[in-house]
Amino acid sequence: MRKPNKFNPDINSESSTLMKESSAKSFVLEPTWFNRPTCVVAADLIGKVLCRRLTDSDGVVKILRARISETEAYIGEDDAACHAHAGTRTSRTEIMYEQGGVFYVYLTYGIHHMLNLITGPAESPESVLIRAGYLTDNSDRLQDEQQLSTDKQLTHLKQLAGPGKLTKRLQIDRTLYGQPIAPIADLWVEDDGCTPPISLRPRIGIDYAGEAKSWLLRYVWTDHPSLSKK
Question: In this structure, which long-range contacts are made by residues 227-230, counting pairs with CB atoms below 8 Å and at least 24 apart in sequence?
């Protein structure tokens, strides 16, 4: 029997009323899976697989699979780091008031797209930011990126280490804003049974948020080399 590796563990699959079978050992998480407490979702996403369907340069449809290793929870109007803090409701943040199960993608610094998954019930503006991951062994590969130097290929553990890097390499942008977290949007999440060790850390880049900057709402795969920051 193959010896498990903590960064690529043996996995099992289970059935659930909130999942549907995607393959022999993987299940697509339904949008209703995200309609749960935000911190629970943020923790449960560690080890799940973010799937991105793209058309390659040769016209062949590929599915890139990135196992999530780092997330952050943003927990509503009382969270000074949340875009909906103090009831701030704008055309950009309106999507946060939807029921969990849709994407909130925004641009920061005019450069980086941030991928957020809306969570919880309607009118409770909360979300989970996907901060980092790494390409799985069974992922498809894009032709162009395979011609790059080894350290720039998607198989390198630092290529998806950071929310801006992740969205750039997986070609995620604001066209996904408001779309369901489902294959119909060409971006979805699967569960193949991976349950890694999880540690809690303060969130990153929110020094403006007062006491909220020290809240332990960043969930990381303990000591994994793909993290944006330990």
Answer: 227/69, 227/70, 227/132, 227/161, 228/70, 228/131, 228/132, 228/161, 228/162, 228/163, 228/165, 228/204, 229/201, 229/204, 230/201
Q: CB of 84 within 8 A of CB of 125? A: yes
pTM equals: 0.89
Q: How far apart are CA 214 and CA 150, in angstroms?
A: 36
Q: How far apart are CA 199 and CA 221, in angstroms?
A: 6
- Asked if residue 100 belongs to a domain, the reply is yes
The total of structural domains in the chain comes to 1
**In contact, 194 and 67? CB cutoff 8 Å:** yes
- Residue 60 belongs to a domain with what CATH number? 3.10.300.10
Question: What is the extent of the structural domain holding 175?
Answer: 30-221
CA 182/CA 88 separation, integer angstroms: 28
Q: Which two tokens stand for residue 163?
A: 């929310």
Query: For 113-169, what is each residue's pLDDT tens digit?
Result: 999 999 999 999 999 999 999 999 999 999 999 999 999 999 999 999 999 999 999
